[in-house]
């Protein structure tokens, strides 16, 4: 999997799920969604994509992934933010986590669990009650692998084998020995019935 992602400009897909998110709503639970940002050295953060909003859920499994272009020649930094959707275009940050795309690609096929935190404010101590923001789990796959998983495995038929110019050989043998009598004859090896001596089906 890792080898398949080393081509410059390879498309990778990030899947997310979160656990034990902080509940920021008063009369219900948070409505979380994930926003992914990337940047390379000397540049600003650029929004790369986001998931759908999962209503009233602190342990969401997001169905909509984020697609990124992986360039192994550059150290692509990654910022993942989890927000609570308050409706009307308003949102509140639940927590954020940082990594690099190469680090996640190195764990392709596995899941990476990241601890969510609030941004640090210089000179302001962290409130212990607000420190626990939950976790974000990330799974990275190549775009090609995602497409392969979408297609169900189709087993070839006999016609497919013939159409593929396969060489098929058939061997048949006939046993002419005396023991091969009619299947109704108890003395025949091909007899179908109950063996009176053993009381078992033959």
In short:
This protein has 202 residues and is mainly beta.
Q: What this model shows, in words?
A:
The strands form 3 sheets. This protein has a 4-stranded antiparallel sheet. It has a 4-stranded antiparallel sheet with strand order 3-2-5-6. Strands 9-10 form a two-stranded antiparallel sheet. It has 4 helices and 10 strands, in the order ββββββαβαβααββ. By secondary structure, it is mainly beta. The two termini are 54 Å apart. It has a single domain, classed as C2 domain (Immunoglobulin-like), CATH 2.60.40.150.
**CATH architectural category:** Sandwich
Q: Can you tell me the number of structural domains?
A: 1
Shape: elongated
Per the CATH scheme, the topology name is Immunoglobulin-like
What is the highest CATH level, the class?
Mainly Beta
Distance between the termini: 54 Å
Strands side by side in the biggest sheet: 4-1-8-7
How much helical structure, as a percent, in the residues?
10-25%
**What percentage of amino acids are in beta strands?**
25-35%
Average pLDDT number: 82
Largest sheet, in brief, is: 4 strands, antiparallel
CATH superfamily: C2 domain
What's the structural blueprint in terms of helices and strands?
Elements: E1 10-19, E2 32-39, E3 46-50, E4 66-70, E5 77-87, E6 90-100, H1 101-105, E7 111-115, H2 128-131, E8 135-142, H3 143-150, H4 158-163, E9 194-195, E10 200-201
Antiparallel strand pairs: 1-4, 1-8, 2-3, 2-5, 5-6, 7-8, 9-10
Pick out its properties.
four-stranded antiparallel β-sheet; Immunoglobulin-like; 4 helices; 11% helix; mainly beta; 202 residues; 33% strand
């Amino acid at each position: 999997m890792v080898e398949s992602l080393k081509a410059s400009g390879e498309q990778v897909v990030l899947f997310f799920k979160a656990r034990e998110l902080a509940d920021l709503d008063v009369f219900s639970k948070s409505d979380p969604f994930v926003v992914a940002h990337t940047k390379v050295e000397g540049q600003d953060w650029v929004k790369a994509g986001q998931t759908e909003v999962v209503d009233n859920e602190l342990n969401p499994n997001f169905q909509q992934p984020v697609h990124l272009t992986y360039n192994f020649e550059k150290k692509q930094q990654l910022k993942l933010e989890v927000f609570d959707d308050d409706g009307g275009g308003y949102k509140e940050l639940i927590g954020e986590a940082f990594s690099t795309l190469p680090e996640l690609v190195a764990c392709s096929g596995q899941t990476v669990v990241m601890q969510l935190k609030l941004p640090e404010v210089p000179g302001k101590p962290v409130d212990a009650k607000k420190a626990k923001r939950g976790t974000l789990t990330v799974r990275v796959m190549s775009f090609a692998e995602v497409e392969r998983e979408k297609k169900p495995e189709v087993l070839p038929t006999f016609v497919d084998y013939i159409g593929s110019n396969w060489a098929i050989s058939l061997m048949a043998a006939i046993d002419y020995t005396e023991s091969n009598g009619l299947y109704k004859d108890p003395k025949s090896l091909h007899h179908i019935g109950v063996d009176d001596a053993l009381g078992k089906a033959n």
